[in-house]
Amino acid sequence: MTCMDPPELTDLQLAMYLNDDADAAIHAHLTRCPFCRDRAKELAQEQNSLRTALHRANCPDADTLRDYQFGLLSGHETGLAELHLQVCPYCTHHVATLREFVADLERLEEHDVTEPSMLRRIRWYLANAVDGGLRLGPSLGGVRGGRDESSASYAAGGSSEAGEGGEIRIDTAVRVDTKRPEQRVLVGSVIGPGTEIDDVAVGWSADLWLNGALIASEPLDDLYSFRFVNLRPGSYEIILSGPNTKIRVPAVAVK
Amino acid sequence: MASDTMAVRMDTTDLAQYCAENTQLFFARKEHDDGFCFELFRRAMVKKAEDAWNHLYGIFASLTAGWVQAHTLFAACDEDVDFFVNEAFFRMARACTPEKFPRFSRLAQLLSYLKACVHGAITDHYERRIAPFPEGVFIDEIAGEPVERSVDAAVTAREERRELWEALRERLNGEKELVVVESFYLLDLKPRQIFAAHPGLFTDQQEVYQIKGNLLRRLRRDTELQKLLHQRD
Q: How many domains does chain A have?
C-alpha cells in the first residue's frame, strides 16, 4: 500500500496529529489515506506502549507525598519533592486532594517541623465559589462562539493564606459548542497575586480532572486564561499550577 | 496537660481505658483530655509496643472506617472498609518512627496523619488495581478508526516502571532529552505544554517534537532497550 494523496505525511506531522497540534489539512489527509492512517496507528501504539511502561515511573510514592505535606521530610527531600511537584500533575492532584481530605483535622505547623533553611516554597490553595458577577477578561470574551450556559467565580487565598495579602480569583464560563451542541467549552482566567508578579504567564498550566482521572491539561495563555473543549456535562476539578503556586477548584459544574 | 505525667506512669491497659473514655467525651463535644491517647500513640510508635497498637486500633478503628467511607474513591475500589482501615494503621505504624514522633505535639496532629494514611491506602489501591493508567494516556482512534492497545493495561508495578526508566535514562543525552522524555512519557504532557513549562530551554515547540522524534528513532534501534520493553507486553 502507498499513500493515496502524496506526499505522505511526515513523522513530525503524524506526531503533531497525535498530540492535538495538527492543522485541518493533516486531519483531512488522514481521513482520506489508509496508508498514512496505518502509520499513525503504529506511532500511536508505540506512544501508548512507552507511556504505559513509564507512567509515573519517577513519581514519589504516596507515603513520601504524605510526609511532604506534613513537613516530615528532610530539607533535601523536600526540595526534591517540590521540584517534582512543579511539573507533575498527578502528584500535584494527590497532594491537593490530601490537603482537602485532612483539612478538618489539625496539621503540623510549618514552624514546628521544617528546617528553617528549607521552608517549603509551594503555596497550596483551595478555591471556594463566591457570589458576584463574572468579570470576563478580553481573552474570555474572544473565545469561539456559543451561548453562555453558566458562569462561576472562585476565590482562594486572602491575607492568612497568600502571605502577601490579597486574593486569587478564578472566573469560569461554560459555553455550548455551536458546532457540537452536546459538547461544552469551559473557559476561565486567573487573576490575583502570583499571576501579577511575573510579566507573563510563564509556566502556568490548568489541569482538568473528572472522577479522579486527568482529562486534559493546557498551558495558560499570556492573559492567564485557559480553555477546555469537547467536554461532556459533569462535575470537574481544576488544578491551576504556577511557579510555586497550586490552586485547586474542587467542583466546576459543566451542564 | 495535667494528664501527661500520670499517663506516662500508667499501665497500658488502664491508659487505653482512659483514652477510650476521653475519646467518647470528645465525640460528645464535652471537655476531654488528649494526653492519654497521645501517650498511647507514643508507646505504640516510639516503644513499638504491640499492645498499645492493638488498643489504638480498638479505639480508633471506627473513626478510621468513617474516613474510609467518606473518601471519594472508596466506592470505586471494590474492597471492604476493613481492608483500608488495616492498611491505614499499617502505613502509620511503618511511617511513624521514633525519630519522627517528637514532631507531633498534639493528638489531633496524629489523627490527621492517620487520616492521611487512609488517603494513601485508597489512592494507591485505586491506581494499582482499578485505574493504573488514566484514559488520557492512550490514543484509541485515528480518524475514527480504533487503535489496538498493544500493552495489557493490567497492573504494572511502579517499581518495574522505575527500573525501566533508569535503563532509559542512561541512554539520554543532556537536559533537553531528559525533560522531553520525562514530561512526555512519564507525565503525559504534550509538546506545547513541555515548551510552555520550559521556555528558556527550547527554542520553540517544534524543537520539542524534533528531540522526541530523534530520540524515538534512536531507541527503536536499541535492541537491549526494546527487549526490556517487550518483556512487559
A: 2
User: Would you say residue A115 has pLDDT above 50?
Assistant: no
Q: Long-range contacts: A232-235, Cβ < 8 Å, 24+?
A: A232/A182, A232/A183, A232/A184, A233/A184, A234/A210, A235/A210
Domain boundary among the residues A54, A70, A86 is at A54
Residues 6+ apart with CB under 8 A from A143: A173, A175, A185, A187, A227
Contacts of B229 in chain A (CB under 8 A): 49-50, 53
Q: Is residue A233 part of a domain?
A: yes
Q: How far is CA B187 from CA A51, B155, B181, in A?
A: 8, 18, 9
In a domain, A173, yes or no: yes
**Residue ranges making up the domain that contains A199:** 122-255
B130 touches chain A (CB under 8 A): no
Torsion of CA B59, B60, B62, B68, to 10 degrees: -170
CB–CB of A175/A143 below 8 Å? yes
A49 in the same domain as A167 = no
Q: pLDDT band at residue A196, thresholds of 50, 70 and 90?
A: low
Residues of chain B predicted below pLDDT 70: 1-4, 135-136, 150-156, 232-233
The pLDDT tens digits for A21-80 are 999 999 999 999 999 999 999 999 998 888 888 989 999 999 999 999 999 998 899 999
The CATH number for A195's domain is: 2.60.40.10
Cβ pair B229:A49 closer than 8 A: yes
Say if the Cβ atoms of B119 and A98 lie within 8 Å. Answer: yes
- Please report, rounded to a whole number, the percentage of residues in chain A having pLDDT higher than 90: 43
Looking at the whole model, is its pTM more than 0.90?
Answer: no
Chain B residues 14-53 with CB within 8 Å of chain A: none
Residue A150 domain-assigned (yes or no): yes
Alpha helices in chain A (DSSP H): 11-18, 24-32, 34-54, 62-69, 75-87, 89-101, 110-113, 138-141, 159-162
Q: Tell me what pLDDT residue A202 has.
A: 66
Query: For B109, which of A89, A107, A216 is closest by C-beta distance?
Result: A107
Assigned domain for A96 exists = no
